[in-house]
Amino acid sequence: MSDTIFSKIINREISADIIFEDDISLAFKDVNPQAPIHFLVIPKKPIATINAITEEDRLVVGHLFYVAAKLADEMGFAEEGYRTVMNCNEFGGQSVYHIHLHVLGGKLMGWPPYTDKPKALE
Ligand code: AMP
């Protein structure tokens, strides 16, 4: 599990547009942005899914939100608002199995996020 594309970004084995780093987390722009502002905040610890979060990970996961809010403030879109999303497994739409907090902004977000015809019901 530790060799996901995000571990490679953490280890600088592949490049990414990194906008923030500290000892716990890394934030970088999403390569396929779904909004004018779209970046990911990930833990350096490779946690596969939300389901794999343990009691000892609570501060790490909370830190992702702290970094998201800090960057939103520094980048000037905190007050207008933004969307944070963490997808889990197939129905959540997860494609990279290293948890990541999507931060999307710069547009009025819609709701709900699901499609009318989920894959499972086709
Ligand atoms: P998810 O579908 O929630 O697992 O989100 C994975 C996200 O990672 C998607 O929005 C992808 O566009 C993004 N992504 C995949 N590979 C890279 C990469 N090398 N650099 C930046 N973002 C990536």
General description of the model:
- There is one protein chain.
- The chain has helices at 5-10, 58-75, 89-92; strands spanning 18-21, 25-29, 37-43, 82-85, 101-105.
- The protein is α+β, with helices and mostly antiparallel strands and 122 residues long.
- It has a five-stranded antiparallel beta sheet with strand order 1-2-3-5-4, with helices on one face.
- 23% of the residues lie in helices and 20% in strands.
- The chain has three helices and five strands.
- The model has no long low-confidence stretch (mean pLDDT 95).
- Strand 2 and strand 3 (37-43) form a beta hairpin.
- Adenosine monophosphate binds next to loops.
User: How are the strands ordered across the major sheet?
Assistant: 1-2-3-5-4
Helices and strands, in order, run as HEEEHEHE
Low-confidence stretches: none
Distance between the termini: 30 Å
Beta content comes to 15-25%
Helix content: 10-25%
Specify Rg, calculated over alpha carbons: 15 Å
Give the helix/strand class: alpha+beta
Total helical segments: 3
Rough outline: globular
Number of strands: 5
Largest sheet: 5 strands, antiparallel
